[in-house]
């Protein structure tokens, strides 16, 4: 890209903290792509936002753009032929990462197949990466699905992506190629009894157009919002706002998922991230949807806090998380972290969705209406890390991840401001220790209607408390 030529050795960056902007950027990158589109995702859910993006991908393939889509197999359940129909296009290739070979035909046999090989099913490709012409990239926490772009009315994942231009996209392209060419990535056609043809592709196109047209009639406001990029493109303006800075792209080696025990450190993103963590001297902000520090994390955080580093963590509260058992791996660490001076902030559910008495309701799926999904770290207000990596054992040891470190005080400050906003009393609980007689207990400080108040019981329903307690009681910390 010509813009990058004027900034040798640097890449250009722009935050995409808004779900609307994150969707527009992806859609417009498809429209402007000239040679290639490479997409790597853990989750691809059906829904209007995905349908619109797939429609654009088909149009790009029609004009000669090579499209490669790499999906983690865990989230392709029952959709082999649907996915395979798209791969019938001569310019579209689709591969599944770490696929299950047993019992793919039905939900029951898939479940049995997973039970026969739990080790394989436990290790997934959690990467989220979008590449256009290997010159522009989007990396961050968002999967593809309506819940990640505020297109699902009952769900809102608070997330952040990073748009990168120049060398960073080329480096991330190397990451994609490593995964694409890995022996763990298999063409979707390998799992089909009958190979889709041009007729199947045409049928899929018609169904896609029908679904989008139906949504434009039934969900007019939502459809108009998602499709606004067609009349009011914004990508070129964003590219004029880029922050140019040195950067480093980090990713786990695909072979990480082949290890039966803990993987070789040489394969790990955490090994690449460690120098930044060790170099922190004054301030460390961590934003992580799922936070389970484990023994190594506890030693690091408490030692740094004892050395005078201002450490603040923003994660989900029990009432807001979409995976309550993970909270059970985090909750037992809170008192020790607080005693050493680490500040803990837990994102609330949105106040307008609180139930009677200020406590959120629950449902049997464990899904909440609002959930932090961002993954970021800010080092001494100088550097920032954004990617798919949660600060928990699952991201560190079992799943594969990808991310970018940017050496830019300006970008770090913008992410810091977003983190501070998320930590503010109207949006989060600050967990504190309070002396009660001869013992201390946890309390949750927050603000409603402009007034601070203190809760001495963790805000959450009984079902969520039970889920969190079970994971803690049976010692699942290393698996979370």
Automatic annotation (TrEMBL):
It comes from the Bacteria. One of its GO terms (molecular function) is phosphatidyltransferase activity. SUPFAM superfamilies: Phospholipase D/nuclease (SSF56024). This is Phospholipase D family protein. Transmembrane segments: none annotated. GO terms for biological process: cardiolipin biosynthetic process. CDD domains: PLDc_ymdC_like_1, PLDc_ymdC_like_2. Residues 121-148, 368-395 form the PLD phosphodiesterase domain. It comes from Pseudomonas mangiferae.
């Amino acid at each position: 890209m010509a813009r990058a030529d004027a900034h040798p050795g640097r890449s250009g960056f722009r935050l995409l903290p808004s779900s609307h902007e994150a969707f527009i950027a992806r859609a417009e990158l498809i429209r402007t792509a000239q040679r290639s589109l490479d997409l790597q995702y853990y989750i691809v859910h059906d829904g209007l936002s995905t349908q619109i993006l797939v429609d654009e991908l088909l149009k790009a393939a029609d004009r000669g753009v090579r499209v490669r889509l790499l999906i983690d197999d865990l989230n392709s359940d029952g959709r082999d032929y649907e996915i395979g129909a798209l791969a019938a296009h001569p310019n579209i290739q689709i591969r599944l990462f770490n696929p299950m070979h047993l019992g793919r035909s039905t939900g029951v046999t898939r479940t049995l197949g997973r039970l026969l090989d739990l080790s394989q099913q436990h290790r997934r490709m959690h990467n989220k990466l979008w590449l256009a012409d290997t010159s522009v990239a989007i990396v961050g926490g968002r999967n593809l699905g309506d819940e990640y772009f505020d297109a699902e009315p009952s769900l809102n994942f608070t997330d952040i992506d990073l748009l990168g231009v120049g060398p960073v996209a080329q480096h991330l392209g190397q990451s994609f190629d490593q995964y694409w060419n890995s022996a763990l990535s298999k063409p979707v056609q390998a799992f089909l009894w009958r190979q889709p043809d041009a007729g199947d592709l045409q049928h899929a196109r018609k169904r896609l157009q029908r679904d989008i047209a139906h949504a434009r009639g039934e969900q007019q406001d939502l459809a108009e919002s998602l499709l606004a990029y067609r009349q009011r493109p914004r990508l070129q303006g964003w590219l004029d706002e880029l922050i140019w800075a040195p950067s480093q792209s980090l990713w786990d080696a695909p072979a990480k998922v082949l290890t039966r025990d803990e993987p070789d450190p040489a394969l790990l993103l955490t090994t690449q991230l460690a120098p930044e963590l060790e170099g922190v001297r004054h301030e460390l902000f961590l934003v992580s949807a799922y936070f389970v520090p484990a023994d190594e994390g506890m030693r690091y955080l408490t030692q740094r806090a004892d050395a005078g580093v201002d450490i603040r963590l923003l994660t989900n509260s029990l009432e807001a998380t979409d995976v309550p058992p993970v909270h059970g791996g985090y909750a037992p660490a809170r008192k020790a972290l607080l005693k050493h001076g680490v500040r803990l902030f837990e994102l609330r559910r949105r106040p307008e969705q609180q139930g009677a008495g200020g406590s959120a309701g629950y449902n049997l799926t464990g899904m909440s209406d609002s959930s932090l999904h961002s993954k970021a770290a800010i080092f001494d207000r100088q550097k920032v890390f954004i990617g798919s990596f949660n600060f928990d054992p699952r991201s560190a040891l079992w799943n594969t991840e990808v991310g970018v470190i940017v050496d830019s005080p300006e970008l770090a400050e913008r992410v810091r401001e977003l983190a501070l906003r998320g930590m503010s009393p109207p949006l989060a609980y600050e967990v504190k220790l309070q002396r009660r007689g001869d013992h201390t207990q946890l309390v949750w400080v927050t603000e409603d209607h402009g007034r601070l108040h203190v809760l001495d019981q963790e805000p959450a329903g009984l079902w969520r408390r039970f889920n969190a307690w079970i994971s803690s009681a049976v010692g699942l910390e290393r698996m979370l």
